[in-house]
Structure formats: C-alpha cells, structure tokens
Amino acid sequence: MSQTPLPAATDLAADAVESARTRVPILLVVTREECGFCATLKREVLGPMMLAGDHPGRVLIRELNLDSREPVVDFAGLPASCWSIASAYEALFSPTVLLVGPDGSELVERMIGLSTPEMYGWYLDRAIDAATRALPGPT
C-alpha cells in the first residue's frame, strides 16, 4: 500500500493564522526518512485520516521531517529548519506528535513513539479533541 504524503511544514506563521481563524489545533508530526515507526504512523493512522477527509475543520496536519533541508517559516515568521523547530520543542525523537495552538505552544501532552499501533488512532482522536478544547477562546 502506498503512503499518502503528509503536508510538509513550510509556513507555520500562515498555519497559525489559519488555526486561529478556524479554531483548530496544528498537529506537528516529527519524522525522519529512515524511521520505520514514522512510516507506520503515516501509512496506518495519518494517511488514512487524510484520505477519509476526517481532518479538515478539525486539525491542521504538518510534517516536520528532521532530514529535510527545505526552509520553514517558524511561528514568529522567521526562517528556520525543521531540525531547529523540533529542537526548540525538544522533540528530536521520531515519531513525535505535537498538538499546538496558533502561538505554537503545546496544548496537550505530546505523543512519543508508536507503542500501541492498534490503539494509536483512538489516542490521537482523544488528543485532538483535548487540544481543541484547550485552544484559547475568540478575542
């Protein structure tokens, strides 16, 4: 089964504006190219979530690939690398799923690794719901 590509993190400042406008959290998944657990997470959980159309209006999914050399705009609107953004979160283990708000702050406890693949989707759904509840209210 081929893997559904995840949207790469390219402009987190723009994603932050979208997150604030739509009141949905941003899911940052930290990955590496040669990470079998990352491939499993993308193939069995995140890819099907995207194919099913479950995420629009619920969460913005962005991949921070630690091996990428592509520049990224960080939450402050400054140029950065995927590595430096993940490092700022102290999230250099892959896979790590961070659910953040428009200001880039973590909303719920991060999900590190892939310890229970058969239950991961359920845990992720609960985390997305909790992150949505933790978003700051309209100003």
Quick recap:
The chain is an alpha+beta fold and 139 residues long. It contains four helices and six strands.
Descriptive tags:
single chain, 139 residues, alpha+beta, Glutaredoxin, four-stranded mixed β-sheet, globular
* The CATH homology group name: Glutaredoxin
Instruction: State the strand order across the main sheet.
Output: 2-1-5-6
The quaternary organization reads as single chain
- The tally of beta strands, per DSSP, is 6
- Estimated share of beta-strand residues: 15-25%
In the CATH hierarchy, the third-tier topology is known as Glutaredoxin
Task: Please state the CA-atom Rg, rounded to the nearest Å.
Answer: 14 Å
Measure the end-to-end span: 44 Å
Count of helical segments?
4
Mean pLDDT value: 92
- Name the poorly predicted regions: none
Helix content: 25-40%
Which sheet architecture does the biggest sheet show? 4 strands, mixed
**Number of separate structural domains:** 1
Shape annotation? globular
Give an overview of the whole structure.
This protein has 139 residues and is of the alpha+beta class. The chain has a single domain (12-134), classed as Glutaredoxin, CATH 3.40.30. Helix content is 37%, strand content 17%. The chain has four helices and six strands; from the N terminus they run H-E-H-E-E-E-H-E-E-H. The chain has helices at residues 12-22, 36-51, 82-88, 117-134, and strands at 26-31, 60-65, 72-73, 79-80, 96-100, 111-112. The strands form two sheets. The chain has a four-stranded mixed beta sheet with strand order 2-1-5-6, with helices on both faces. The longest helix is centred in the last third of the chain and has 18 residues, at 117-134. The model has no long low-confidence stretch (mean pLDDT 92).
